[in-house]
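lol ok so funny story. i was supposed to be doing the assay writeup but got distracted and ended up predicting the structure for this chain instead. priorities right. anyway since i did it might as well share w the group, maybe its usefull for someone
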Amino acid sequence: MCIRDRPNDVNSLRALLEKYVDNMNILNQKIVFISGSRSGIGRSTAILMAKKGARLLLHCRKKGDTLDLIEEIKQYGGQAKEISGDLSKLSNITKLAKSITEVWGRVDIMINNAATISPMSMLGNLDIIELEKSMNVNLTAQLALISELWTILSNSKARIINILSGASKNPRKGWSIYCTSKAAFHMLTKQINLEGKEEGIKCFGFSPGLVRTNMQIEIRKSKINEISFLPENNMIDPIEPAKCILSIASGEFDNFDGDFMDIRDEIFNKIISHNLFK
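and the output, tada:
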């Protein structure tokens, strides 16, 4: 059952909101890894979490891609380190995991945000090489990285947040790779939660909705299905899903581990509307 279908406890929600107001450093000294942090949701989440006291491990594909973000985080008194590595190549994963471990020796919150929508093509016209790269970025590399980091994730009883999509549940023309990989990522969320329970690891799936990102620019240029033609005013700013990701990372939704959570769920809308996460 989706969260939006569950009874809403107004008093509990009010208490939750008051707690956020009273405790502005809710991630104090927590080590947060974010894949795909150069732009969009990853970048907005990094800035928001830095403001709330987290120390950031910022993943990007090419070395130097997050240097401007690191400088911005420093302006808020935050700490951040860049972790570079191309997720389309599985041969990079062991080195990437080693780099993550060597910085602060632990990961308290892991946000698997990296994704690609390319290539968008109808079945029968897929580029096999590009198919492999996309599946690696959206699924296989993130599965491998979680496995490589399992010991330190267990040691810190980490929360893992997988960024899903409506495409996890709904097929779209030309998106066979993206929809398939996101559906599998949803199942991986459940699998991690199942195997992680004894270790104290919790895994959450979160769908951010239609967000104003570089991916949406690609989608509109493709004109491959109905999503390409949705009005731009349907899109939201990346800070909105970032607020929801922060609320999950802080532990307020631990009872929903293993769930498919959607930004359109009522409780997220109320948290966003209170605008507590500036």
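Strands lie at 31-34, 55-60, 79-84, 109-112, 159-163, 202-207, 260-262. The first strand starts at residue 31 and ends at 34.
back to the writeup now i swear
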